[in-house]
Amino acid sequence: MASYQDPLDRIVAGNRVYAQHTTEQDPTAFVELSKGQAPEILWIGCADSRVPETTVCNCRPGDIFVHRNIANTVHADDLNAASVVEYAVAFLKVRKVVVCGHTKCGGAVASLGDADLGVTLNTWLHPVRELRRKHKTELERLLDDDARAVRVAELNVHQSLDVLKQHPAIKKAINERGLSLHGLIYDIGQGQLRLLEETSSKKSNGLWSPN
User: Fold this and answer.
1) What angle do CA 59, 106, 167 make, to 5 degrees?
2) What is the count of structural domains for the chain?
3) CA 116 to CA 129: how far, in whole Å?
4) Per-residue pLDDT for 209 more than 70?
5) Which one from 48, 67, 75, 162 is the annotated catalytic residue?
6) pTM (two decimals)
7) N or C: which end of the chain has fewer CB within 10 A?
């Protein structure tokens, strides 16, 4: 008879194993975490379940401050992202801000066309679809949709970085203490991160406006 474990039961049981193993390896681990956090990196990534940043970067709890959403897209009017950025940069004083896209991204694939995904997703992915339209000639030269989706993911990372550079807290931290921003692509099939080169793209239109 096949055994079946409820997914919620599975994660609760898994937490017990994690807590026990962590305590066995370092009895003070949770005590130290309870004292506060001092991450050096703000990671803005995709909500895709295959890209858990702490795991793929071989980091520990407390190392990375995280914001994730569909297709790691940063909108200038997104209060959620704006608040995460403000807290990480102005109060936690992170040294690096990373935007990480990935291969096989559902949002990037969906942005290759204009299928109706529902009001919310249509609105959310609109800037990514606009990127596809803007770079239509370049994308059409690529061999297949997999390659086109990866390129859209790269372009989306660069666009999100451009938007982030307009955030007041980021602009101040760049000028005052050398905060730097970086783009990454995670290859799900290889399990490896790739650093994107800086681009000379123009700044996004307008200032960050979370209201």
Assistant:
1) 60
2) 1
3) 12
4) no
5) 48
6) 0.92
7) N
